[in-house]
Amino acid sequence: MPVSSDAPRPGSGSDTPVLSLRNITKTFPGVKALSEVSLDLYPGQVTALVGENGAGKSTIVKVLTGIYRTDGGTIEVAGDQVEFATAQDAAEAGITAIHQETVLFDELSVAENIFIGHAPRTRFGLIDRSEMNRAARALLTRIGATIDPSIRLRDLGIANKHLVAIARALSIDARVVIMDEPTAALSHKEINELYELVDRLKADGKAILFISHKFDEIFRIADRYTVFRDGQYVGAGRISEVSEDELVTMMVGRSVDQIFPARSHQAGDVVLEVSDYRHPTEFENIGFTLRRGEILGFYGLVGAGRSEFMQALFGITRPSGGSVRIEGRPATIHSPASAIAQGIVYVPEDRGKQGAVTGLPIFQNVTLPSLTQTSRRGFIRLAEEFAMAREYTSRLDLRAASLDQNVGNLSGGNQQKVVIAKWLATQPKVIILDEPTKGIDIGSKAAVHEFMAELAAQGLSVIMVSSEIPEIMGMSDRAIVMREGRMVAELHGPDLNAKTLVRHAAGITEAAA
Amino acid sequence: MIQRFLKSREAILLAAIFALTALIWTRFPGFVEPANLARVFNDTSPLIILAMGQMVVILTRCIDLSVAANLALSGMVVAMINAAFPGIPIPLLLALAVGMGAVMGSINGLLVWKLDIPPIVVTLGTMTIYRGFIFLISKGSWINAHQMSPAFKDLPRADLFGLPVLSWIAIVVVLGFLLLTSRTALGRSFFAVGGNPHAAVYTGINVGRTQCIAFIISGALAGLTGYLWVARYAVAYVDIAGGFELDVVAACVIGGISIAGGIGSVGGALLGALFLGIVKNALPVVDISPFWQLAISGGAIIIAVAFNSGSLRSKGRVILRKAEHTA
Amino acid sequence: MSLSDRHIPDRLTSPLQRLFRSWEALLVVVAVAIFITNSLASPYFLNAWNLSDATFNFTEKAMIAFAMALLIISGEIDLSVASIIALASTAMGYAVQLGAGTPEIVVIGLLTGLICGAFNGALVTGLNLPSIVVTIGTMSLFRGISYIVLGDQAYTGYPSDFAWFGQGYVFWVISFEFTLFLALGAIYTVVLHKTNFGRAVYAIGNNPTAALFSGIRVARVKFILFLLTGLMSGIAAVCLTSRLGSTRPSIAFGWELEVVTMVVLGGVNILGGSGTIPGVILAAFVMGLVTFGFGLLNVPGIVMSIFIGLLLIGVIALPRIWSRIAARRA
After folding, report:
1. Lowest mean pLDDT among B11-15, B316-320, C53-57, C207-211
2. Which of A160, A177, A249, A251 has the fewest CB atoms within 10 Å, i.e. is most exposed?
3. Could you tell me which CATH class the domain A257-343+428-512 is placed in?
4. Which residues of A touch B201 (CB under 8 A)?
């Protein structure tokens, strides 16, 4: 299908959307990921999709690309109602996505990555390599990239892989290009190059859906915005007619101090002291102290190295240098088992993969790290297991049919409670919570926050990794900001505000230097 | 280009083959005479053909342990038909062998695709089922040379431009696979499915269907080899090519086809097969008992897979800017 | 502290309810049905000595199946078990040639099994290699070593008191092997279902990352499981060699298939995470009864292997087909 037919026609303007989603609903067991949301994309314009983590942004991308089937609502492409049963259908309708984590093929060449599925053929039906390489080179030149189309993709860096993905989008004559946090892993220079590219795509008449957490970026590049919150449509409009504050209010939907539990902070003795922790490729120069009863926030953009540092602190990966002292005594942590034994526990970000053992019942999840306490000489005592599970799940106000129920059948919020209960049962000194409220419903969020405050009040030290500014501001006594694997600021008191956090995390002002 | 080749797995393997051949040459110069090398190649041809099919299966993150049983059953069927009806033309029998192999391959493929059963379980099961069927149809008896028609026996051995037809078939199959893997959408989708199944779905490739096709290709080649094997050795019985599936997997693993899928090349599989073929043919020459062969292929699988794993291990994310240049 | 007003019950179903709905209950029904069919089909079936003989069809394989069940539940597999038997048996035969007595022979058999298991375990856990490929490799390697040592020869001349392990009876028709099978079955039931180690095996099979993050020493547990599988293969090698009285390199050829089938038939998920030892014990009986029944009907061994292959695929395929049909109706 020729691109020109979809380009903005003179006179008609670009006020007719090329793609319209109406009342889209998508439910998963226990979670309503999208509830009657709507979204319009206009040719030659960039629409920013704004929302907190868990607002439903990635779900809508999967709906648009035919990975998820909707439970309700309609999709219209250029006025015709369509249905995306497979990814192929979405691709044929001219919708393509450039993802956070580049999803292409490392072992194939650049040209093949661009043309997989629609490579030029010779008379004999074979792939025409020279034509494919020529066309790939032309596309890459068009977007200002100097990449040899015949080399393998795995030899490219992240930024160049993005360019390949964009060239692919151009090659299939896409009408709609979805960019899901495209700048997350790019340098300042690369980001500016990407902006130029987006302008070129706009000039080509493509409709662009731009998903980003960075406000400066949104106001720099978007023409329109749409806001989602907790899987629901909040509002949409022209970016020129909205202020940053209005957008934040729409996103968060509540003022910060309303929702977070009030805390009186009286920090005790130093429990954990980390100095000069470093890793060859992931992070360096991390040093801080943590006191009894304190909540220490770790803020940064996705990919800033926060989780990587936490996993090193928990003994999953080995740091290349640095030291840890627990209650004043030097400690060596070489495995999760030794971290747990020394009182450090970690609630991972990826609940399904790293936190809960979803195929096992609740009580077995809770007792998993504490089996030595509920057993005698290695033999399990069921009554003691159930007693322990009962105690800690009730402390967390878990909702479940029975303690014998598989964790996989619980909602996200309740799964998180099981994971936290599991760690409390080990009676830790320090609990690390990595994005503790990511992807869970608003009610459970408040419960997790309340519980976190309660734990701190009882003398537990909490490290909370979060990408949500309200959460960092509402919960932490102090906050450390990380960027590109380094600790760039330690904020507390009046310095701990949204602007300073964003500035340090994005590294856009001289103040960060 | 040349630099990249020198660093590749294929180059290392090629060097190993040269070193091995040179070692044999120092003691038995006769081994490297062209006539003998041609004989070694001809002897390795069945392994080469099967390794090509196994390669595409492994590329899609599967494994086919039923190839040897498939070969034996297809071979037995055409041998029995030839013995009973010597008049049926050989091309028809050849087509039947390939077709039977493809059907057996499609059974594997459909079980993997439609029912999502792990390939190892499927092919471990069909391996014994196919082998058992040979007994059922032959009642355990042998088809010997005198029961086969001369035309049936002669085809793989017939001389064409100085090489037996068997060798030519292996060469044609290898060339065909070069074309398939480098110049066709299907060939490239094998790499895509194994390299990143998640992304393959996004680009509109049906992962299960691609895996099924890989099994059909592997099965068809096993059927082809079935006829060639039975005709060349002029005998068919229940246990022919017993355990040969391990040699085929060994050839692929030695050739650098990653068992995790998505990585591998026709050249690698070819060299892996040749490596095993040379070892096997050199053993009697250097006066080592042929009973060493099984242990050597086992040892080679382990060494190759351990060697290949080093490059697969993830080194963690590169977040620090300074590390981006050094890592 | 936010104490909940609502109480979560420990369990909703009673143990008896769970028992009746289980795969094991189905296996009991199948075993009884085959038992009745066999006794009706053949007058030779219901004879204490014949039944006792029939147990030899499965006892050795079942011993390995116990350890294999744990290994598969943990998400790994060992295809080299039959080759370990060959190597252990060869080592024992070699020891006999050097004049070893029965105690030494047994120790050497078990030790060989342990070493082979440690070799597999070290490759899988130490180098992080996929167990399928590693054990396909060692499957060739271990049996290959037997071929190097023995060629087309055989070891015989085992001491007469060595025969007791495979041919001896503890009481009346109860053989030593059958007793050992029951004892090992009991031990493995306790280990998997009543100990912390067993719980770790389930956790690893369900989610190795979450298990590691919960402080379980995943690599160590897996290594021990490979060690156990090697040891069980060594025990099976002692029994089988003693029963046959000789060692050929082709000994126990193809047994890995039957062992894996037994485990899968016992209700162990081939992808790991679930399964029980009582299920495997029942599966051993079912397979033993079927093999014995076929034997009475003079069905040749290779046809039985067709049945085993079909059983392996069918046991996994049928529930999937069934649930798909059920889903389509709903």
Report:
1. B316-320
2. A249
3. alpha beta
4. 67, 87
- Secondary structure (3-state) at A70: coil
Asked whether the beta carbons of B262 and B207 are under 8 A apart, the reply is no
Cβ neighbours around C138 below 10 Å, total = 27
Candidates A446, A427, A424; CA nearest to A437 is: A446
Q: How confident is the model at residue B322 (pLDDT cuts 50, 70, 90)?
A: low
Spatial distance between the Cα atoms of B325 and A146, rounded to a whole number of angstroms: 19
Chosen for mutation from A95, A98, A105, A160 (greatest number of chain B CBs closer than 10 Å) is A105
- Determine, for residues C313 and B296 on separate chains, whether the beta-carbon distance falls below 8 Å: no
Are A346 and A314 spatial neighbours (Cβ–Cβ below 8 Å)? yes
Q: Chain A: residue nearest C15 by CA?
A: A404
- Does the beta-carbon distance from A108 to B188 stay under 8 Å? yes
Report the chain B residue with the minimal C-alpha distance to residue C303: B132
End-to-end CA distance of chain C: 44
| Partners of residue C206 in chain A, C-beta under 8 Å | 357-360
Residue A117: which of B182, B204, B321 has the nearest Cβ? B204
Contact C8 A354 (CB under 8 A): no
Residues of chain C neighbouring B306 (CB-CB closer than 8 A): 123, 127, 129
Q: How many CA atoms lie within 13 A of B145 on its CB side?
A: 4
Angle, helix C301-329 to helix B119-138, in steps of 10 degrees: 130
d(CA C255, CA C263): 12
The DSSP bridge pattern shows strands A31-41 and A329-331 to be: unpaired
In chain C, what are the domain boundaries?
Answer: 46-318
Q: Does B292 sit within 8 Å of C144, measured CB to CB?
A: yes
Sign of the Cα torsion C296, C298, C302, C308 reads negative
Distance of residue B19 Cα from the nearest chain C Cα, in angstroms: 23
The pair of structure tokens assigned to A444 is 């459970």
Interface TM-score (ipTM) > 0.90: no
Asked if the domains A17-94+174-253 and A257-343+428-512 are classified in one and the same CATH topology, the answer is yes
**Domain boundaries defined on chain A:** 17-94+174-253, 107-173, 257-343+428-512, 354-427
> Alpha-carbon dihedral of residues B210, B214, B217, B220, nearest 10 degrees?
-110
Q: Which two tokens stand for residue B119?
A: 């390939």
Long-range contacts of C38-44 (CB under 8 A, 24+ apart): C38/C289, C38/C292, C38/C293, C38/C296, C41/C293, C41/C296, C41/C297, C42/C293, C42/C296, C42/C297, C44/C296
Please provide the DSSP assignment of B167-202 as one string.
HHHHHHHHHHHHHHHHH-HHHHHHHHHHH-HHHHHH
pLDDT in tens, B83-97: 999 889 999 999 999
Nearest neighbour of B294 by CB, restricted to C130, C143, C312 = C143
Among the partner residues A104, A308, A486, nearest to B199 by beta-carbon distance: A104
| CATH 1.10.3470 describes domain C46-318 | yes
Chains that touch C (3 or more CB pairs under 8 A): A, B
Chain B residues with CB under 8 Å of C310 CB are 125, 129
pLDDT given for residue B280 in this prediction? 87
Q: What is the dihedral of CA C23, C25, C31, C35, to 10 degrees?
A: -160
pLDDT at A179: 87
Q: Please, what CATH class does the domain formed by B42-290 belong to?
A: mainly alpha
Distance to chain A for C231, nearest Cα, Å = 21
Question: Is B195's CB within 8 Å of A119's CB?
Answer: no
